[in-house]
């Protein structure tokens, strides 16, 4: 089947999509967007997190046909080409990236947390927001640093 | 595999009547895991996302009618104060990404004994509104579960909504797992006090082939409590309540836990949730 979907603000069409295929497969294998990562395909790791109509979801658990006519934003779409979003910049500066496999999903999820927080979220809020994103390398401390840094820059200092 | 995309509820019912072998998909958080891991291929997927009728909820007198498309995230945000037990259980489901997609109707469709919405639905006496082209059926929650991962929907029926009475007293949910996030319950328990009827509701999860109530424990507690709210909870009553809840379970040993551990932890959860509920109840009465 054919799936029409807006990805990072651009209308796109994927052809020959198998009906049981996931949005993640469509993004990576049919639309040339390998940012969202495929690790578990069962919703456990969060490395495939993308925005669907503005809400972060696991792309591996969305059936391709379910995104017909909807809006998807992937990590590639958070900033204009060649630039970095504050969250991306903070991950680099804080040393929150090691192998990098978890990074795109964490960045989208952290982006959503920061967009919906009035100021700098506290540790409990950050941990809760990132509970579905696994990282096997960093031990999470630098990731928390990166989220606090990006939140402070985007939303002003903690109140 | 076919992909069916009804745009309205009537169209969804007509498609399901024509294709009783089609698997409905809402949040996909159960359906897609099965497909991705190749644990069986549905003949067709019936996508309910475009059916906007399903994403609404409404209050009809003392009952909330929650459309099958209302996600856990929305239920927590929008209905948390009206349905505290179900909201507490919803907060423990998966991760934010899972709660952004997953639904109570999907939890019912999957009918896993470990599903977190079942204990509060049992404790509050919820009703599953099932519909087909033949008409609507109101299925009391106790009659919904038919066995491990089996329910009593007919092949042409879809869940339209879940009807849950607005809380009139304290409600609590408790769940045992290996960490604080992303866990399937080892076992779980929900309590609801219904002061206007001087009745107690319970729900046990992951400790029998289906989620179930503990009716003996409910009757015992209803007769022991001081519904005027003057007396503190008798520790002996709480202990016996816990034992009776545990006695209602018939758990198995599996990878998540042993049967005897489940029985033990159910007794503890029942006692603790009762303590929280009673504190809230007497606090409210005195306020
Ligand atoms: C990483 C992860 C963590 C999870 N953690 C938990 C947890 O902590 N607790 C828990 O309880 N569950 C958990 N789950 C399981 C799942 O998220 C829940 O069961 C959820 O409620 C399913 O809802 P859904 O809308 O995604 O269902 P779907 O996957 O869309 O559907 C589930 C089932 O219900 C049927 N169905 C869906 N809608 C209807 C309808 N309207 N009428 C009839 N049948 C219908 C489907 O055909 C299917 O059989 C988890 C899943 C994942 C992937
Ligand atoms: S690949 Fe989607 S959650 Fe792991
Ligand atoms: S940096 Fe390697 S998994 Fe997170």
Automatic annotation (TrEMBL), chain A:
Signal peptide residues on this chain, from the entry's feature table: none
Domain of life: Bacteria
Keywords of the record: 2Fe-2S, Iron, Iron-sulfur, Metal-binding, Oxidoreductase
Entry GO MF terms: 2 iron, 2 sulfur cluster binding; metal ion binding; oxidoreductase activity
InterPro entries: 2Fe-2S-bd, 2Fe-2S-bd_dom_sf, 2Fe-2S_ferredoxin-like_sf, 2Fe-2S_ferredoxin-type, 2Fe2S_fd_BS, Beta-grasp_dom_sf, Diverse_Oxidoreductases
UniProt keyword Cell cycle, yes or no: no
Domain 2Fe-2S ferredoxin-type: from-to ranges: 1-78
PANTHER family from the UniProt entry: OXIDOREDUCTASE WITH IRON-SULFUR SUBUNIT (PTHR44379), XANTHINE DEHYDROGENASE IRON-SULFUR-BINDING SUBUNIT XDHC-RELATED (PTHR44379:SF8)
Protein name: Carbon-monoxide dehydrogenase small subunit
Organism: Planotetraspora thailandica
Recorded name of the encoding gene: coxS_2
UniProtKB/TrEMBL annotation, chain B:
Protein name per Swiss-Prot or TrEMBL: Carbon-monoxide dehydrogenase medium subunit
Molecular function as annotated in GO: FAD binding; oxidoreductase activity
The FAD-binding PCMH-type domain, residue ranges: 1-169
Lineage of the organism: Bacteria, Bacillati, Actinomycetota, Actinomycetes, Streptosporangiales
Alphabetized PROSITE patterns for the sequence: FAD_PCMH
Natural source organism: Planotetraspora thailandica
Coiled coil spans: none
Keywords carried by this UniProt record: FAD, Flavoprotein, Oxidoreductase
InterPro entries xref list: CO_DH_flav_C, CO_DH_flav_C_dom_sf, Diverse_Substr_Oxidored, FAD-bd_PCMH, FAD-bd_PCMH-like_sf, FAD-bd_PCMH_sub1, FAD-bd_PCMH_sub2, Mopterin_DH_FAD-bd
């Amino acid at each position: 089947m054919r799936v029409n979907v807006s990805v990072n603000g651009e209308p796109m069409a994927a052809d020959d999509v198998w009906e049981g295929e996931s949005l993640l497969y469509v993004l990576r294998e049919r639309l040339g967007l390998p940012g969202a990562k495929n690790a578990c395909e069962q919703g456990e790791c969060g490395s495939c997190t993308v925005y669907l109509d503005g809400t972060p979801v696991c792309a591996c658990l969305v059936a391709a046909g379910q995104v017909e006519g909807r809006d998807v934003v992937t990590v590639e779409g958070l900033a204009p080409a060649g630039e970095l979003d504050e969250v991306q910049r903070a991950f680099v500066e804080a040393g929150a990236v090691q192998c990098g496999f978890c990074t795109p999903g964490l960045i989208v999820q952290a982006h959503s947390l920061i967009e919906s927080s009035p100021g700098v979220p506290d540790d409990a809020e950050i941990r809760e927001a990132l509970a579905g994103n696994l990282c096997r390398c960093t031990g999470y401390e630098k990731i928390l640093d990166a989220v606090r840094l990006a939140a402070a820059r985007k939303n002003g200092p903690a109140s | 595999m076919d992909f069916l995309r009804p745009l309205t509820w009537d169209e969804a019912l007509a498609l399901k009547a024509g294709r009783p072998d089609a698997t409905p998909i809402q949040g996909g958080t159960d359906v897609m895991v099965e497909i991705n891991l190749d644990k069986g291929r549905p003949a067709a997927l019936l996508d309910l996302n475009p059916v906007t009728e399903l994403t609404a909820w409404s209050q009809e007198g003392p009952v909330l009618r929650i459309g099958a498309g209302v996600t856990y995230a929305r239920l927590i945000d929008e209905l948390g104060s009206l349905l505290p037990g179900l909201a507490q259980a919803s907060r423990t489901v998966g991760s934010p990404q899972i709660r952004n997609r997953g639904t109570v109707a999907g939890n019912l469709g999957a009918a896993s004994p470990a599903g977190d919405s079942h204990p509060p639905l049992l404790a509050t006496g919820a009703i599953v509104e099932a519909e087909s082209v033949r008409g609507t059926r109101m299925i009391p929650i106790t009659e919904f579960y038919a066995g491990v991962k089996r329910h009593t929907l007919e092949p042409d029926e879809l869940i339209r909504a879940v009807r849950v009475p607005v809380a009139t007293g304290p409600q609590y949910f408790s769940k045992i797992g290996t960490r604080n996030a992303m866990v399937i319950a080892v076992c779980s328990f929900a309590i609801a006090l219904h002061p206007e009827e001087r009745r107690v509701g319970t729900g046990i999860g992951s400790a029998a082939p289906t989620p179930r109530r503990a009716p003996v424990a409910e009757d015992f507690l209803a007769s022991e409590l001081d519904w005027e709210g003057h007396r503190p909870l008798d520790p002996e009553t709480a202990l016996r309540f816990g034992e009776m809840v545990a006695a209602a379970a018939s758990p198995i040993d599996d990878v998540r836990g042993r049967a005897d551990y489940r029985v033990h932890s159910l007794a503890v959860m029942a006692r603790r949730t009762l303590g929280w509920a009673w504190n809230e109840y007497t606090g409210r009465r005195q306020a």
